[in-house]
Hints:
- Its main location: cytoplasm.
- The chain has helices at residues 28-43, 60-65, 70-94, 116-124, 142-152, 187-193, 200-208, 223-228, and strands at 8-13, 47-52, 99-103, 112-113, 128-132, 157-162, 168-169, 181-182, 184-186, 213-217, 235-238.
- By secondary structure, it is of the alpha/beta class.
- Uridine-5'-diphosphate (UDP) is lined by residues 14-16, 53-55, 59-61, 74, 77-78, 80-81, 134-135, 137-138, 140-143, 145.
Amino acid sequence: METAKYKRVVLKLSGESLAGDQGFGINPAVVEDIAAQVKQVREHGIDVAIVVGGGNIWRGLAGSAKGMDRATADYMGMMATVMNALALQDALEKIEVDTRVQTAIEMRQVAELYIRRKAIRHMEKGRVVIFGAGTGNPYFSTDTTAALRAAEIEADVILMAKKGTDGIYDRDPNKYKDAKKFEALAYIEILNKGLAVMDSTATSLCMDNKIPLVVFNIDDHKNIVRAALGENIGTTVGG
Length: 239
Ligand code: UDP
């Protein structure tokens, strides 16, 4: 068995990554596949916390663009992430991976409330912790949640699984054939070049707290394990 480079990782799954090719909603087969990979990561003794997005169901910005109150639309987005968190928990527990969902908004019949020390304790006991409801605040994203939680639980890295792209490019590789992929880059370059990796709040939080990030393609089904084992896949961001 390979020696793991990381002791504790935050896996950021976009909502889209749970939708599979249908592009919307939750595809149980895809969720099962992700759960199987997370189980393998756990078998390497790596602590896993998951931050899940909600874009496969609802994005606050899309609602507000159509005239909804932004904060209300964002709370709907946070609810969407909880649906995804429960789907992931279900798939993980079906394959006997102990899992706790912690939400940033209290919904005690459904999940635990996010308590930092409790989250750490769960991981020490070998449980996977899934953080739902983002930061609990409108105007934020689940990328920012990943940065915040990674800092709080002292994770070694954020593993950011993307659909349809295998890393960070200097321009959109779907539009420009000569787009160049970065093997590694610094957070400040993301900000300066305006690269569409994650929003600037999340980028600054990672930069200020020196949390490394690996952006990789989730379409290849072995990549969560490979990224968690520290293989050079995708693009690494630091600095
Ligand atoms: N959201 C929020 N505050 C947070 C995290 C998320 O208001 O701290 C809302 C926001 O409306 C966002 C939606 O939840 O559009 C879904 O999250 P996100 O867009 O980050 O999901 P992803 O793109 O990763 O699927």
